[in-house]
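Morning run. Coffee first, then this:
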Amino acid sequence: MFGAIQERGCTRRKSPARSSCPPGKCLERMEHQRRRPEHEVEDQRVSFRIRSAGATAAVLAFGIMTCATMAGIPEPSFVLHGTLAVDGQTIKATDGVTILARVDGVAEPVGTYQMGDNPAARDNYVLRIRLESLADGSGQSGNAAVVGQTAHIMIDQGVGPQRHAADVELTAGGAVVTLDLSVRGGITWHRAVYYDERYPSVWTSGTWMLDHLVRQGYTVLDADVLKAWMIARIADNQPSVVVFVQDAVPDTVAETMTPDCTLRQYLNAGGKVVWYADIPLFYQGHVDGTTTGWGVEGSMEVLGFNAAGGDWESGTEVSITGGGLNWGLTRTWLSQRPAEHAGLRALAHDGYGDTAAWVMHYVEGDTYRGFVRFFDRWGRPNGHDVRQLAVFGNQLPPPLDNDYDGDEDVDARDLVLFDRCFDGPEATPTPPWAGITVHNCLATFDSDEDADVDLADFAGMQNTFTGSDF
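And here it is:
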């Protein structure tokens, strides 16, 4: 319609090349026009203006009615800003947490802010909630709110379900409101640790990690109970995690080297395993203390890929990825059995780019469960990092200052490790033990953050000393 109106409006009649009035009549006709009453001429002009304006108004009204039916009229945003704490931990700009605003009846969020989006906000969030007003007959947009609605403020940590933080009435466009947000609760995990003194280990020894996890409320499962526990979690589909502190998989849950075994079925059902030290499923353990060597075929057949396909024995210090930091890794190690597989969520790389810590998910869309592998070497990893990987989806408090092994105390063992890191002022630590890294020395003991471990840091060590099992 609009095109036809334009086309007709642009069509002009050509002026005659010469006057068509007969000789002698032109002056008479001109005189008649000159003598017409002024009101007739004005009426004609007004009539023309009304007709022209009417045509234009009809076109504009058609366009406005079409737009109003589709969406409302944008209004100034409603702005929320403040701090955010999750499970008692203040969220920083580098933590990658997203704040969203939702209103009932609107499919998309009406506002989002990822921590760090605005560098000027630093560790605060600034959430702009889109508003619109509705003309008669117009419908609400799919991503904007209306004054008077209630916005549900949600927190998305990238894992697990979004968590409700607050409800806010959207009182007026252009309003700026300070609101410090805090959420608690998170995922309720069934936490367990596998340990059975009848069964063998390969690169792990002692009960230090077992004792640490028990103090933190983990349930100990022997090989027989582990099978029953996994079957129960498959049935009830409750969030669960088991940390293997022995690195030969027991034959009660890895009955066969196939994806039909209980362990793989547990992963398929949304279970979570944390594994460190030797290659996952490289050995199958038996109740008499012996092992059956499966090699890398164990992980290939049960987990679905080669869990140690990278270059072995690199001995290079790992670098923690952004994903690894998000999952809670704080300490490095020297890699020995990395993986190389495109389908993994990489948490740390060795010096050659192979994946020294990773997660394999077995449920479509999952971001926080599956098979978690890190610390791909002999020895024992940091206790805090083990627990944070286990309950990722929840956020633990940061590790204690001067607690090198992450067992929630500062004791004689930490003092020994401080001595290994101590090299005096303005000197980069050169720890003599293979398992100690420069990163860990500075991250743990450099209390004044001047890139060395010296007497000033020792004073901090004394102030935080608690003794064992504090």
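DSSP finds twelve helices and 22 strands in the chain. Good start to the day.
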